[in-house]
Design brief:
The complex is a heterodimer of chains A (108) and B (122). Chain A contains no helices and 9 strands. Chain A has 108 residues and is mostly beta strands. In chain A, strands 1, 3, 4, 7, 8 and 9 form a 6-stranded mixed β-sheet that branches. In chain A, strands 2-6-5 form a 3-stranded antiparallel β-sheet, with no helix packed on it. Chain B is globular and about 45 Å long. Chain B has strands spanning 3-6, 10-12, 18-25, 34-39, 45-51, 58-60, 68-73, 78-83, 92-101, 107-112, 116-120. By secondary structure, chain B is an all-beta fold. Classes of the chains: A mainly beta (108), B mainly beta (122).
Chain lengths: 108, 122
């Protein structure tokens, strides 16, 4: 089955840029979606189709996807961005949705 | 506005079954698949499967085939997820999520329920 690999944690100071990666075999060929999950809350979609933002997602959130790595970039990080972030793809071979293991973003 | 309201927390014994409900409002229930995702304490998200509320078709993740059953009641706009033969490692928060699209041809989980905690205890 298809595997998505995310670093367990990323730390960044306020105002700096956070880059959260999601690795997968030829992931660049698949649309990648990103979800933010704050403690005790349900996940919320923040980026879809690699780089598009649903209404309500700040422009500070952007995404890219190429080769074997997709990246969620959060510019000018704020304390409120502290959360777990999950990448997601549809695996055509298994007809399954797949989530990465998640990255905990800590704002120092 | 779209809202998914889930049933309350459950405590179960190993070997028992649990049935979680997800009542949809604010949209046409039969127009969007409903997915179930679970999250064990301190762990990540795990996709369990989906149900098409329009015709009842289902697709279960390989791991859950044989233990999960997803159903729906269109008269009440409610989806159900029943997990049987519960084990201690089934302790988790169970979420329902609506599948939506932004017109790009790909699908996302655009609205989520609040989650239902299922705890296994002897």
């Amino acid at each position: 089955s298809y595997v998505l690999t995310q670093p367990p944690s990323v730390s960044v100071a306020p105002g700096q840029t956070a880059r959260l990666t999601c690795g997968g075999d030829n992931i660049g060929r698949k649309p990648v979606h990103w979800y933010q999950q704050r403690p005790g809350q349900a996940p919320v979609l923040v980026v879809y189709d690699d780089s598009d933002r649903p209404s309500g997602t700040p422009e500070r959130f952007s995404g890219s996807n190429s080769g074997n790595t997709a990246t969620l970039t959060i510019s000018r990080v704020e304390a409120g961005d502290e959360a777990d972030y999950y990448c997601q793809v549809w695996d055509n071979d298994s007809d399954h949705w797949v989530f990465g293991g998640g990255t905990k973003l800590t704002v120092l | 506005q779209v809202h998914l309201e889930q049933s309350g927390a459950e405590v179960k014994k190993p070997g028992a079954s649990v049935k979680v409900s997800c009542k949809a409002s604010g949209y046409s229930f039969t127009d969007h698949f409903i997915h179930w995702v679970r999250q064990a304490p301190g762990q990540g998200l795990e996709w369990m499967g989906w149900i098409n509320p329009s015709n009842g078709d289902t697709n279960y993740a390989q791991k859950f085939r044989g233990t999960v059953t997803m159903t729906r009641d269109t008269s009440n706009s409610t989806a159900y997820m029943e997990l049987s033969r519960l084990r201690f490692d089934d302790t988790a928060v169970y979420y329902c999520a609506r599948e939506g699209s932004f017109g790009s041809g790909s699908y996302v989980f655009d609205f989520w329920g609040q989650g239902t905690l299922v705890t296994l205890s002897s």
